[in-house]
C-alpha cells in the first residue's frame, strides 16, 4: 500500500470509528465500549504519525505534526478517547488534503527518453545494416533517411543536407548543411537521405547530454517543505510550555490536555493545502498546469523571468512576413496560387502558406502534375497555369533578378528568413518572405509580469544576434543572451538564480535542462513539447504567453491567502489555548472549537478558487 492510500485508509478508519463509537454511546449500550472503539480508531493514526515523525527526524526535518502526536497520545493516556479520535480525524484529513494539493506529480524523463534515437543505419561493403544506436562506433559511416532522427553526433559526408534542428537549438527554420559540417544527434533529417560519419558514441552525443542534464538538474532540486513546518520550532515548545504551566498552576492534567487539543496545528496543516488546491484549480481553468503546491509556492516568490525566444516570445514557426509581387501581379492572387500548389507538399512551410491564404479567405484550387524537389521546392499546374515555387536556384537558375525584386533581396540579405520564389509560366511573379514573428500578446504579457512584481526580464536564446536583435528591439527587456547552447542556458539560469528566485520560460527540448535548473520552469506545452513539459514545474496548455503572467498572479495571491489563513488560525488557536489553560474549555469542547477554527480557515483558504484581482494591471 502506498502512502497516499495509507493516509486515506487512516482517515476512513478514524471517521468510521468516531461514527460507530458515537452510535454505541448514544444507544447507551456501554460507554466503555464506545471509548474502546474510539481508542482503536485513533491508534493506527498515532502509530503512522510516530513512524512519519521518526523518518522525517532521521533526514533532518521536524514539523508541527509532533503536536498532534502529543495531543492524541495524551488524550488516550488521560482517558479522553473522544478528543483523541477527533484530533486523529483532523490530522489525517489534513494529510489527505495535502496529498491532493500536491497531486503527487513526479518529474520524469519518460517523454524525453522516448524521443531519443533508437537505431542507426551503418554502411558496410556488404550494404547497409540497421543496428542499435548503442552499437555505433566513432568513425562509422551512417545513412540517415528522410524524416529520421540523427542517431549520434557526426560529420556530413554528402554535398548537402537539410536539417530540422528545432529540438536541439530551438531554431524553427530548416538549416542547410554542407560537407564537413558538424551534425548533432536528436536533429531531424528534413530533406533527402544523406551520409554522415559518427564523431561520438551515443552516450556522448548532444541529445544524450541533454537527457543527463535534465536528470541532474531535477535531482538537485530541493523537496517541497510544507509552510507549516516553518513555524514548528516555535509552536511546539510554546504549546508544551502553556500546557505545562496550566497543569502546574491548576494541578489538573485535563487542562493541559485541553491546551494541547486546541493547539493541534490544523490551521497550519490544512490552510496551505486547501489554498493551494484552490490556486491549482484556478490555474487549471486558465489553461495552466502546475505540478503540485511546491511549484505554486515557488512561483509566488519569483523575481526574475528568463524567456527563450523561439516558440516562447515568438510564434516559433515560419510566418508570412511580406509578399513582393511583380508590377503586373496581384499579391493575393499569387498567395492563392502558391497555397493551392503547397497542398501537395510536405515541406515545413506548406502549413504556414495555406494558413495565410485561408486567413485572407482565399479559395484554393486543386493542384495537378505536381513534382517536388525535396529541400528545394516544387512545380505543377494550377488552373492550367504552370507554377514553380521554391529556392532562387530552382526558380531562376542562373537568371538575374528583375529590378522590382532587387530591393527585397537587399533588405533581407543575411536576415534569418526563408525566401520562396514563385514563377508563373517560367517568369518570376513574386517573392514570399517567411520568418519568426513576435507573439501577439508578448508585449502585454511582459507588461503584466512587471506589474505582478517581476523585476528583471531576460531573453535567452540559441539564435544568433541578428535574429535576436529584431525581436528584442520590440520588447521591454533588461538583458539579452544570444548564441546560447543548452549548457550556456543552464549556466545563465544558475547565475541569475544566485541573485533572486528565477523563472525560466521555454518550449523546446533544448530548453529542458534550463527549465529543470530554474527555481521554476515554465513550459509552453500547447504544441506537445513533451520533453520541456516533463522538465518544467508549470505548463502553459494554451498557445499564448498571457497565461504566464496569470500564473504568477495566481501563485502570489494563493500564497498570500494561505499565509492569512495560517495567521488567523494561529491567532484563534492562541485565544482558545488561553481559555483552555484557564479551565474554560474541556478537551472534547476544545476539539470542537478547533474544528470550528478549521472551518473558518478553510473558508478563507477557498478564496483562492476565485479570481480576486487577476487581470488588473
From TrEMBL:
GO terms for cellular component: plasma membrane. The chain crosses the membrane at residues 6-25, 37-54, 66-92, 231-250, 256-280, 561-582. The keyword Lipid biosynthesis does not apply. Its EC number is 7.2.2.12. This is P-type Zn(2+) transporter. It is found in: Cell membrane; Membrane. InterPro entries: ATPase_P-typ_cyto_dom_N, ATPase_P-typ_P_site, ATPase_P-typ_TM_dom_sf, ATPase_P-typ_transduc_dom_A_sf, ATPase_P-type_domA, Cation_Transport_ATPase_IB, HAD-like_sf, HAD_sf. Its main location: membrane. The keyword Cell membrane applies. It comes from the Bacteria. The lineage of its organism: Bacteria, Pseudomonadati, Pseudomonadota, Alphaproteobacteria, Hyphomicrobiales. It is an enzyme of class 7 (translocase). Keywords: ATP-binding, Cell membrane, Hydrolase, Membrane, Metal-binding, Nucleotide-binding, Translocase, Transmembrane, Transmembrane helix. Pfam families: E1-E2_ATPase, Hydrolase. GO terms for molecular function: ATP binding; ATP hydrolysis activity; cadmium ion transmembrane transporter activity; metal ion binding; P-type zinc transporter activity. Residues 116-214 form the P-type ATPase A domain. SUPFAM superfamilies: Calcium ATPase, transduction domain A, Calcium ATPase, transmembrane domain M, HAD-like, Metal cation-transporting ATPase, ATP-binding domain N. Belongs to the cation transport ATPase (P-type) (TC 3.A.3) family. Type IB subfamily. It catalyses: Zn(2+)(in) + ATP + H2O = Zn(2+)(out) + ADP + phosphate + H(+).
Amino acid at each position: 500500500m502506498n502512502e497516499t492510500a495509507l493516509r486515506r485508509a487512516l482517515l476512513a478508519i478514524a471517521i468510521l470509528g468516531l461514527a460507530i463509537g458515537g452510535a454505541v454511546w448514544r444507544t447507551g449500550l456501554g460507554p466503555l465500549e464506545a471509548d474502546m472503539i474510539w481508542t482503536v480508531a485513533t491508534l493506527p493514526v498515532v502509530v503512522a504519525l510516530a513512524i512519519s515523525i521518526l523518518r522525517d527526524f532521521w533526514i533532518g526535518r521536524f514539523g508541527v505534526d509532533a503536536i498532534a502526536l502529543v495531543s492524541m497520545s495524551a488524550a488516550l493516556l488521560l482517558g479522553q478517547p473522544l478528543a483523541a479520535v477527533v484530533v486523529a480525524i483532523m490530522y489525517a484529513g489534513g494529510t489527505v488534503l495535502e496529498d491532493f494539493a500536491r497531486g503527487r506529480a513526479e518529474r520524469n524523463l519518460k517523454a524525453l527518453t522516448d524521443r531519443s534515437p533508437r537505431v542507426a543505419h551503418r554502411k558496410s561493403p556488404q550494404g547497409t545494416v540497421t543496428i542499435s544506436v548503442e552499437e555505433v562506433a566513432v568513425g562509422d559511416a551512417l545513412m540517415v533517411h528522410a524524416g529520421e532522427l540523427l542517431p549520434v553526433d557526426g560529420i556530413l559526408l554528402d554535398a548537402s543536407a537539410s536539417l530540422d534542428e528545432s529540438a536541439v537549438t530551438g531554431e524553427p527554420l530548416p538549416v542547410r548543411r554542407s560537407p564537413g559540417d558538424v551534425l548533432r544527434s536528436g536533429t531531424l533529417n528534413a530533406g533527402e537521405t544523406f551520409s554522415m560519419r559518427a564523431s561520438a558514441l551515443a552516450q556522448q552525443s548532444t541529445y544524450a547530454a541533454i537527457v543527463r542534464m535534465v536528470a541532474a538538474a531535477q535531482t538537485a532540486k530541493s523537496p517541497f517543505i510544507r509552510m507549516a513546518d516553518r513555524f514548528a520550532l516555535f509552536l511546539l515548545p510554546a504549546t508544551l510550555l502553556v500546557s505545562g504551566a496550566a497543569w502546574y498552576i491548576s494541578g489538573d492534567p485535563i487542562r493541559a490536555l485541553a491546551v494541547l487539543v486546541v493547539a493541534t496545528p490544523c490551521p497550519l496543516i490544512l490552510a496551505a493545502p486547501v489554498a493551494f488546491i484552490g490556486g491549482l484549480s484556478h490555474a487549471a481553468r486558465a489553461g495552466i498546469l502546475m505540478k503540485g503546491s511546491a511549484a505554486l509556492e515557488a512561483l509566488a516568490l519569483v523575481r526574475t523571468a528568463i524567456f527563450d525566444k523561439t516558440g516562447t516570445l515568438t510564434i516559433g514557426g515560419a510566418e508570412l512576413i511580406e509578399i513582393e509581387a511583380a508590377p503586373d501581379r496581384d499579391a493575393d492572387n499569387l498567395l492563392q496560387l502558391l497555397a493551392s500548389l503547397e497542398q501537395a507538399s510536405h515541406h515545413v512551410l506548406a502549413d504556414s502558406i495555406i494558413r495565410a491564404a485561408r486567413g485572407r479567405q482565399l479559395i484554393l484550387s486543386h493542384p495537378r502534375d505536381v513534382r517536388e524537389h525535396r529541400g528545394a521546392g516544387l512545380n505543377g499546374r494550377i488552373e492550367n497555369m504552370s507554377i514553380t515555387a521554391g529556392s532562387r536556384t530552382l526558380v531562376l537558375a542562373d537568371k538575374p533578378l528583375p529590378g522590382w525584386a532587387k530591393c527585397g533581396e537587399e533588405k533581407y540579405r543575411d536576415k534569418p528568413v526563408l525566401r520562396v520564389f514563385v514563377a508563373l509560366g517560367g517568369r518570376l511573379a513574386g517573392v514570399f518572405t517567411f520568418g519568426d514573428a513576435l507573439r501577439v500578446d508578448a508585449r502585454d504579457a511582459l507588461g503584466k509580469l512587471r506589474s505582478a512584481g517581476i523585476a528583471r526580464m531576460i531573453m535567452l536564446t540559441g539564435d544568433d544576434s541578428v535574429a535576436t536583435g529584431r525581436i528584442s528591439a520590440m520588447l521591454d527587456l533588461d538583458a539579452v543572451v544570444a548564441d546560447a547552447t543548452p549548457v550556456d542556458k543552464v549556466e545563465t539560469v544558475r547565475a541569475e538564480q544566485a541573485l533572486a528566485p528565477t523563472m525560466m520560460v521555454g518550449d523546446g527540448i533544448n530548453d529542458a535542462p534550463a527549465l529543470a535548473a530554474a527555481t521554476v520552469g515554465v513550459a509552453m506545452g500547447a504544441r506537445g513539447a513533451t520533453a520541456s513539459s516533463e522538465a518544467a514545474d508549470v505548463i502553459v496548455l494554451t498557445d499564448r504567453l498571457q497565461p504566464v503572467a496569470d500564473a504568477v498572479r495566481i501563485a502570489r495571491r494563493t500564497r498570500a491567502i494561505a499565509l492569512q489563513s495560517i495567521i488567523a488560525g494561529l491567532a484563534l488557536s492562541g485565544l482558545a489555548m488561553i481559555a483552555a489553560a484557564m479551565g474554560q474549555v474541556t478537551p472534547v469542547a476544545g476539539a470542537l472549537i478547533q474544528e470550528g477554527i478549521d472551518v473558518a480557515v478553510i473558508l478563507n483558504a477557498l478564496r483562492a478558487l476565485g479570481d480576486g484581482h487577476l487581470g488588473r494591471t
